[in-house]
Amino acid sequence: MSHPSAFWDRIAKRYAKSPVADEAAYRHKLEVTRQYFTPDTRVLEFACGTGTTAIEHAPIVGHYLATDFSAGMLEIARSRGAGVDNLAFEQATLEQLPGKACFDVILGMSILHLVDDLDDTLAQVHRLLVADGVFVSSTICMSDRHGWFRLVGPIGHRLGLFPRVRMFSRDQLEERIQAAGFHIDYRYQPSPGKAVFIVARRVAREN
Ligand SMILES: C[S@@+](CC[C@H](N)C(=O)[O-])C[C@H]1O[C@@H](n2cnc3c(N)ncnc32)[C@H](O)[C@@H]1O
Question: pTM to 2 decimals?
Answer without folding.
Answer: 0.95
